[in-house]
Amino acid sequence: MHDSSLEFARFYSHSQGDRLQRCVEQRVIYRSKPSVIFFSYEPLSALLAWPPAQVALALLSGAWIALCAVKMRWVQEAGYFSLVIGGKRVREYSTEAYARSQFLACSWEMPLEIATNFISGVICVVVVLLASRRQIEVAKLVVIAYGVLDAILNLLIFVRMMSQGAGRTGLNTPSYSFIVFVLTVSGRGDAWEGGRAESSVQDLLVFPVPVAYIEPYAVELVALSGAIRTGTGLAAGGWRYPSVGMLGAGAAFLLMRERLRLQALQEARKEAACGLEERWEEMRTSSAIETLSRVVKRATAYAELDGRCREPIVVVSTEDSSQSPEEIEAEEPRSATGRQTHQACAASLDQLYAQAVLLDPIFLLKVQSLAETVDGYLPAWEGREGPSYVRWREAVADRSMERRVRWASIKSASRAIEKVQLLCHGRLSDLTDVVRQSLVFTGVEELTEGVRAVLEDPELEVVRIKNRLDEAYDSRLSGGYRDVAINVRVVNEETRRKGVEGHVCELRLAVMPMHQLVYSTSSLRYQSYKQILSFRRDCFKPWQVLGMLARQLSLGLLVPASLRSGGASMSPSDFTSSLSSCKDEEGDRSEVTLARVRSHHRGNVLDEHLERAAHGLDEVATSTIMFSSTPLTNAVNKHFFQAILFMVGVAYGYFVFAGAKAHATFTNGAMSSTLYRLELRRVRDRSVGARAELYKSSFALVRDACSRFHPSSVSVDNASLYFTFNESVVVNGWQLEIAADPEQAQYDPQELVLERWEQATKAGNASWVEVSSFSCSDWPGLQLCDASPELARGTSIRFELRQTWRSTLRYVNYVLPSSFCFLAVFFALMRNSFVAKTFAASCFHVVGLMELATSMPLSLRDPLSAHDFLFGIADLSYGLILQFREKYTLHVLPVYIIFISIGATAVDMDWFRSSKSFSMDYIPFTAYVLLSVWLYFQVSRKLQFRRAMSYVKEEQVKYDQCWALLLEQDDSKPQLTRLADICSLHPAGRAEQWSSRDVDCENSKPSIFDLSLLCVPSWTGPGKANPVMRVESLDQLYAQAVLLDPTFLLKVQSLAETVDGYLPAWEGREGPSYVRWREAVADRSMERRVRWASIKSASRAIEKVVRSYSYQVYCLTDVVRQSLVFTGVEELTEGVRAVLEDPELEVVRIKNRLDEAYDSRLSGGYRDVAINVRVVNEETRRKGVEGHVCELRLILKEFHALKSMDGHKRYVRFRNSIGE
């Protein structure tokens, strides 16, 4: 029979520990079968997972952003609602055109509307990137979150417009459209059609927010949203093409779905007509059908529960198959044995398959026993004459017949993923047929006896019965085929020992006349349209949504997350304990041991701790962490560093929000007064005087480029005009209309000054304060200043007082570091080190990009532009180092400090051409702060290293004395030199863990795990022709270790016998003792004294990966390890030679700590020879672990005898202090 445990082991030695669960979460089925998207219970997720849809969305997003940019350019060039750019603070435009737009809303609501337009396109790009990275759930959450955010923004715009009484925005969008955006289309992405804005497919009450709980109806919601938007467009007097497209796409999707459904229904009827319905008509009149129904009904009903749980759940008759999962869960759970247990459910598909591998042979024996008891038949391999069967009672006596039986294998993982995604709606609880078998009976009477036998079996706990031989069953769902499916648990001593007594299997009891009509080809056809026919059959109805949502919310509030996630709280120590307990079972092969370990937890428990927890850093000082391979990633998990980030954020925030720049930015050039004076200092014709009375009705104050305020009275005094307002209004600009009469062109103003009257305050007396001035000598490009006076007729000039975009952007640049510091602290507290590090680095690289943007157009003569440019280069460069090469954080920091210090000094001293003398004030305050931080870490590191050395000083003295005695021996130095020469052939370089795609694995034609599920790029290692992959998953690495450990142990035993080595024994009262392996081979009692090294604890493995290997799992090469002890250097050298000459060992690296050049302070004085090897033989190739690197330590007895538990504890303190 097929060895499912070996296939399981081979698969997980080549893949991540949660590979199957990832396939479910990444919706891989929609990439291979896009047609099933029409009948998916999650159409939005399905489309996001489909690459062509991703490409289409990316193209539409790019076109959308380009359209927004074009519209922005048009708005800017029009001049009516100018977004102030440096230098263009005086604009002229057509007075007639501007008069038509004076009632538009163009305050902060216009930039907010523009922002929503851009953000919608950016969000789509982000969603595409996430979907392409197979982060479907995150992409969907981004869409929903943006829908909520955009609804809030549109509501703010609507309220603002209502308070102003404005009918349209500066982009000509009607005010009522925004309330429609809030109620139906929250995620806006406005497309302009005839000067009107259009929304995208984002919706608060229709789409996308409801996707969070009723995604099965997403297509209908999209169509409804499109219909509402189309109606809104018609009401506004124009077509909204994106809305029409949205409505058309939704309608086309629904029509295609209905067409495919009718086609599948027709095929199902044809399938049923091929003899199945005739056979059913022959059987349905039999009294045995009624007897079978009564037997099933008498079976006690139990609550339907997770098929992976260990809580007893039993029988549900398919006569009531319309019962929803919620109605079933409402029933009281009971068990046939009257007992109840509460144990954790399997949390992933990978854990479910680990249980299945362990249970499959046990369930097979149980089915054989049942077949013999009830005289059942078993399907045989099909011949030319069609289906055939084997009577099991005859097969027991004739083993040749047993080989003809076609036993059902464990369900294919690809099919399980497909079923979970398409038929189980993502619920693993519905997947109860991973382990399955079939029994065939000659008639319904015999089948009924089979059901009774299952119900009465003391080792079978019935979970559910699907009686498809019931007249109430709709046979169209199974293409006319009928049988009885019984879900059971096998509860006996063996399943309890392996911990799989909670796994649910499926036993199908079929009637031979009907079973004979089912072929493998018809089964494939049935699978192809079953999902279509069962679409939404058990989906939640719209009226059930509120109740379901309330139930989920209450569950989320009342049930701890660790329980809901099915064991997410397992720590690395728990994993190590589980591994040890599983290995203690004698007689289990390593493949079975691996399956047992995996059956106890989710597949990615170690990777999750590695990625999201600061495991292994609690005992390490921050100053030590800053010198590790990933200083920033590790440091953000330390409370000391978090406190520093928080204080920096507070300090930056105070500086930003309490300074003059904050006041200037937030006031945005606003001023207020009741009296203004306009002085005309020069006109076009200098031979005549200014006629101020011509401009009595031409002056107006302007707010946000749209709202205009005219004076209540005007008085003239020579060349000055005095404008009086009834009340003080807040404005940020003013305008002047040029006389339209050509005869008055000679009086066109060429130089003027506007002043406002400021009332007396405590700070000073009342006085005139200049607002702005104008001179044609500064603005020669204006038509007003042109030599031809006709060009200025019918124009108006607007004078902007608002902040320029460069000034605003520069202020935002000051705000960003404070925000990034707070976000880094938040995500660090959430144990998301990568995101926290990214925000911390963003204080430099994102700020650097912003600084480069504010420096454009670049002018080195402009101090602000030059300053931004230099700081932008420095911040961007250092930020990229923090993000991608963080191990150089402290190495590059002094260079950064010197660069910004010299750069700032050069700018302030006009590139050293100024006569001003150097001042310390030229150096930025940031440079002083960073220099202090750098000096603190340098000094603290040295102090920490001294403290660490004091922990192992006692042991180091002993080891150094032992080393000195060894060197004093006459024959030691030549032997040490010889050892160094041998070890130099394999220098202490870099060793990496590999996972090879071996040919045997590809040719084995696996029946459970399709190799296409691996889906990982190959990487060819040095000197290797076969494609290999680096091991990136810690769970995968431990799977390989479990498989390889017994093989490596045998190899070490062989080496010990060859070189006459010793092995450490369990310590007695007299201290360390050793076992000579040659003697232990002859005396098995001595073998039991050997203290074999166990697989490295998961906690220590995570510590090493985090502290020393930059989170690169493939650098961890001592998970599987053993030691050999030798009496002298000569014997140890022979041991090294034996390892090098062994044909089954591939030496990867040798660390010779017995070299005189080795600095023993790094290991607390301890010395040995560590050899990293790969075991390459038939056994490791069979298991697929020939790429795993183990460690063999060759130790001198003198050094090993000095080791003690107290010394090891002190070494652990030393190791933690230096962050090793």
From TrEMBL:
Q: So where does this one cross the membrane?
A: 48-70, 138-159, 639-657, 811-830, 864-881, 888-907, 919-937
Give start-end ranges for the coiled-coil region(s): none
- Give the span(s) annotated as Disordered: 316-341
User: What highest taxon heads this organism's lineage?
Assistant: Eukaryota
Instruction: Identify the keywords attached in UniProt to this record, alphabetized.
Output: Membrane, Transmembrane, Transmembrane helix
Protein name (record): RelA/SpoT domain-containing protein
Species for this entry: Guillardia theta (strain CCMP2712) (Cryptophyte)
